[in-house]
Amino acid sequence: MALQLVIGDKNYSSWSLRAALAVDLAGADCEELRVRLFQPDSRAQLLRYSPTGKVPVLLTEQGAVWDSLAIAEYLAECYPEAQLWPQERQARALARSICAEMHSGFTALRSHLPMDLARDKALAELPDEAQADIDRICAIWAGCRERYARPASPMPSTHRSPRDCAVIMWRCRQRLRPMLKPSIAGRRSSAGIRQHCRR
User: Fold this and answer.
1) Cβ neighbours around 42 below 10 Å, total
2) Where are the domains of the chain?
3) Cα dihedral across residues 178, 179, 184, 188: positive or negative
4) Is the pTM of this model over 0.85?
């Protein structure tokens, strides 16, 4: 049985997009099964695949793996040649710490800048708590770049997979366009995510 990734719409479900990006970066042979979210029967449909009734869930020969971070860990073990995690222990520990923080934190950013790739309109005003989340994210990236970035690399490289960074970058670019300076990294990230979501 080939891997199957059960997801929602990648335009609106950041968790689905994160898992799909991880699969892509791992180079895994994987079929995507899409379930329409926010429908009367969505939960019933998802419970056919996942005990949580949520996306994403990766279906393997041994059973289901749910939650985007658990899926990334599974893929890292199955496809070590993809180097989804850094090889050096301390860099790997830092990458895991950052991914865990990204995964469970930044509630203000999620509330005020929800995932919506179909929208391209900036916020009229950015709440202080959302700005505090953005400042923390920028501090994380600056620290990673200072310590680990390769020459001419536009992204922090403590973790080869940019799945969390890409999703956060798109949220910020999408809603805060007048406040952000254009960058090569931002343009590349936007184009890459648009292309991936059109698949």
Assistant:
1) 16
2) 3-82, 89-197
3) negative
4) no
Q: In the chain, how many H helices and how many E strands?
A: 8, 4
Q: Which residues pair with 64 in a beta bridge?
A: 59
Alpha carbon distance 6, 66 (integer Å): 9
Give the Cα separation of 120 and 109 in Å (integer).
Answer: 17
Alpha carbons 171 and 78: distance in angstroms, whole number: 30
String of DSSP letters for 30-84: EEEEE--SSSTTHHHHHHTT-TTS-S-EEEETTEEEESHHHHHHHHHHH-GGG--
Tens of each residue's pLDDT in the chain, 199 residues: 689 999 999 888 989 999 999 999 999 999 999 999 999 999 999 999 999 999 999 999 999 999 999 999 999 999 999 999 999 999 999 999 999 999 899 999 989 888 887 777 777 788 999 999 999 998 998 898 899 876 555 444 444 444 555 556 555 655 555 444 444 444 444 455 455 555 6
Structural tokens at position 179: 């406040």
CATH topology of domain 3-82: Glutaredoxin (3.40.30)
Give the C-alpha separation, 169 to 154, whole Å: 12
